[in-house]
Backbone:
């Protein structure tokens, strides 16, 4: 097991330079997680938002919706002028503008509940989605009673008591989050794709390259240690290295967030991070086929790490990315990682579903498998070229 | 009958259109220090890499200690040590750790390995540098570490590919003495070098190769017999008439006479008492002369005459 022993001996000697990266990234991850958490708390604490409703329909249904929204939020009467409205939104006098368009009641009577109003909200604001949800629930319930044969006044009469109860329950759900896992836990996982890529490409790839260096490999191949044994030892080293990094990250999480790291959703997030770990390890394995030094590895890790992070929503929420960026991101593994993590932590508008999680997880595994296959093919090609 | 340490028969290795080894034959006896000489690109390293199974080949056979050599001939590889031209050590490991690593690729027993590592360190005289990292070593010490990594497991067959490149004279002497000592301990050595004098000093037999072919093989004396030039007589003389040069050219065994910069050079293809015969002629013609030298041909002369080029061409 000479390769195995020497691998970790060399890794140990490179540890100081690598640990600097590790601790900086862990620190940043915790810092970002904490700051993001504060924003979310502030937003969700304000149960009643300042909103503006522009009623262009002036019907019974639109009046009922306005009344309903007024029962939850503070309605600010404003002039129906786009500039004025934008100014108030910009200066945060209001958080949401709902325009009930003409034909609202007619559409509801004909069974349509989608696109019956237009809205303008603060970009990236979770509270905006909250209001969207309340309006959507109200209109859907109203449509349900209408389709059951009720007239509009009857439907409004039946909807109001139910929706007011639901609205109350919704707000309790948001506030009674103390039992559940904190969002920081998921922010702890959020930045992992970037951190893993850097730690693996700057740490693991140069280590493997050291053993693949032309002269050292020639001398090793002349020895009585079989090629199979050499490969097995290197693979075991890579697996152990990966597990140590993964475990270290998890233990740091346990140290900060204690038992929350063992919450069902947090454990799913941990499983999700395992897929990210595999991808980073596979990427490092692929890169180790090229004779590069530490500085080149560092450059590659930054390009890949930052590129994936910005395209896939590691640093910027996916909800804020444009559709064209998301279309490209779907072909990248970090997108699926973040999508799953967002679902688990409630960091996006997408509700958690097990099937969606497994789909995202499976896609990541496929990416890892594809990278490993490409690395093996490249390694075989290199060997043939040398001979 | 002794089993040869290495037997190469009809070896052909092609790199696409280029024929690197063209039906190459070689037999190295057990206990020899065998020198492999050839200009750059002659096929020396390709030959060694084929013998070590680092390269595949198109045709021919290679036997080591009477057994066919394959990439998975680990029982044979256990008996082989390799010192490559380029230093192959880990920068992150100390002298001791490096030797331990490469020795450990052959020797699993920890106690035995420790003993072998210490012996290798003593052998290359790196005892004071055990904890040093390769970057802290001078060129000569680094070469010695490279050798220690290749021989620590006490191989029976050692390949040394240019082990003294860029080494100071003191370290070179130590390396050469070490190689002779390894041979005395029973190891067969295959040695390649650009330094003719090293090969001449060390090797019991020498092969000269060019363009993938074995041009000549034998002891240095046998190789010197292959060439026309057997002796060179150089005499310092102020001037000499043309008719005297012609007369000297007519003397027995003389095949070429040169006169340049007051230096008379007479090239002879054999015979005895050549120097006396030439000096007697000069005295008979009352031609005064200064210093007189008589040189036997060197391996460089052999190489030049056989390959038609200098070793570093």
Residues:
């Amino acid at each position: 097991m000479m390769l195995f022993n020497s691998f970790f001996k060399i890794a140990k000697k490179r540890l100081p330079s690598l640990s600097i990266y590790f601790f900086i990234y862990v620190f940043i991850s915790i810092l970002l997680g904490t700051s993001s958490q504060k924003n979310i708390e502030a937003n969700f604490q304000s149960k009643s938002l300042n909103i503006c409703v522009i009623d262009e329909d002036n019907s019974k249904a639109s009046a009922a919706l306005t009344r309903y929204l007024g029962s939850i939020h503070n309605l600010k009467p404003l002039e129906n002028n786009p500039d004025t409205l934008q100014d108030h939104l910009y200066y945060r006098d209001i958080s949401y503008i709902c325009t009930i368009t003409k034909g609202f009641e007619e559409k509801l009577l004909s069974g349509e509940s989608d696109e019956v109003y237009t809205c303008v909200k603060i970009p990236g604001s979770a509270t905006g989605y909250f209001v969207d949800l309340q309006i959507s629930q109200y209109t859907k319930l109203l449509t349900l009673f209408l389709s059951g044969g009720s007239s509009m006044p009857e439907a409004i009469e039946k909807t109001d008591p139910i929706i007011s109860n639901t609205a109350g329950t919704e707000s309790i759900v948001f506030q009674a989050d103390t039992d559940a896992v904190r969002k920081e836990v998921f922010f702890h996982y959020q930045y992992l794709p970037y951190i893993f890529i850097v730690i693996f490409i700057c740490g693991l790839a140069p280590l493997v390259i050291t053993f693949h260096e032309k002269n050292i490999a020639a001398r090793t191949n002349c020895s009585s240690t079989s090629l199979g044994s050499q490969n097995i030892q290197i693979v075991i080293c890579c697996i152990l290295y990966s597990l140590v990094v993964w475990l270290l990250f998890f233990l740091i999480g346990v140290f900060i967030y204690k038992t929350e790291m063992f919450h069902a959703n947090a454990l799913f997030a941990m499983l999700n991070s395992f897929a990210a770990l595999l991808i980073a390890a596979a990427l490092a394995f692929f890169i180790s086929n090229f004779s590069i030094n530490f500085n080149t590895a560092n450059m590659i890790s930054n390009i890949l790490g930052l590129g994936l992070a910005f395209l896939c929503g590691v640093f910027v929420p996916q909800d804020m990315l444009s559709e064209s960026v998301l279309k490209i991101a779907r072909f990248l593994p970090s997108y699926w990682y973040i999508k799953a993590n967002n679902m688990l932590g409630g960091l996006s508008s997408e509700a958690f579903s097990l099937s969606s999680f497994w789909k995202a997880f499976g896609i990541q595994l496929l990416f890892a498998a594809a990278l490993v296959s490409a690395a093996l093919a490249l390694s075989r090609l290199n060997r043939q070229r040398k001979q | 009958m002794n089993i040869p340490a290495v037997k190469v028969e009809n070896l052909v290795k092609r790199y696409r259109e280029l024929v690197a080894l063209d039906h190459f034959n070689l037999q190295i006896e057990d206990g020899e220090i065998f020198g492999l000489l050839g200009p750059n690109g002659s096929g020396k390293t390709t030959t060694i890499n084929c013998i070590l199974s680092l390269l595949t080949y198109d045709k021919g056979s290679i036997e080591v200690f009477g057994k066919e050599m394959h990439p998975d001939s680990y029982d044979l590889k256990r008996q082989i040590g390799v010192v490559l031209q380029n230093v192959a050590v880990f920068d992150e490991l100390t002298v001791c750790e490096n030797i331990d690593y490469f020795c450990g690729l052959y020797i699993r027993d920890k106690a035995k390995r420790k003993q072998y590592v210490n012996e290798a360190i003593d052998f290359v005289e790196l005892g004071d540098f055990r904890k040093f990292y390769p970057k802290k070593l001078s060129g000569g010490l680094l070469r010695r570490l490279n050798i220690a990594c290749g021989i620590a497991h006490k191989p029976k067959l050692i390949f040394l590919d240019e082990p003294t490149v860029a080494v100071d004279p003191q370290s070179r002497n130590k390396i050469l003495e070490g190689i002779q000592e390894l041979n005395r301990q029973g190891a067969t050595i295959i040695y390649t070098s650009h330094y003719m004098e090293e090969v001449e000093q060390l090797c019991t037999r020498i092969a000269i190769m060019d363009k993938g072919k074995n041009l000549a093989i034998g002891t240095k004396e046998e190789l010197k017999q292959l060439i026309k030039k057997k002796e060179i007589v150089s005499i310092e003389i102020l001037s000499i008439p043309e008719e005297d040069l012609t007369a000297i050219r007519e003397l027995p065994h003389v095949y070429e006479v040169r006169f340049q910069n007051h230096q008379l050079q007479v090239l002879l293809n054999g015979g005895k008492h050549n120097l006396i015969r030439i000096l007697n002629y000069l005295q008979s013609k009352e031609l005064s002369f200064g210093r007189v030298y008589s040189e036997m041909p060197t391996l460089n002369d052999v190489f030049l005459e056989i390959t038609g080029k200098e070793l570093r061409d």
Summary: Chain B touches chain A through 30 residues (CB under 8 Å). Chain B has two domains: 6-225, 231-296.
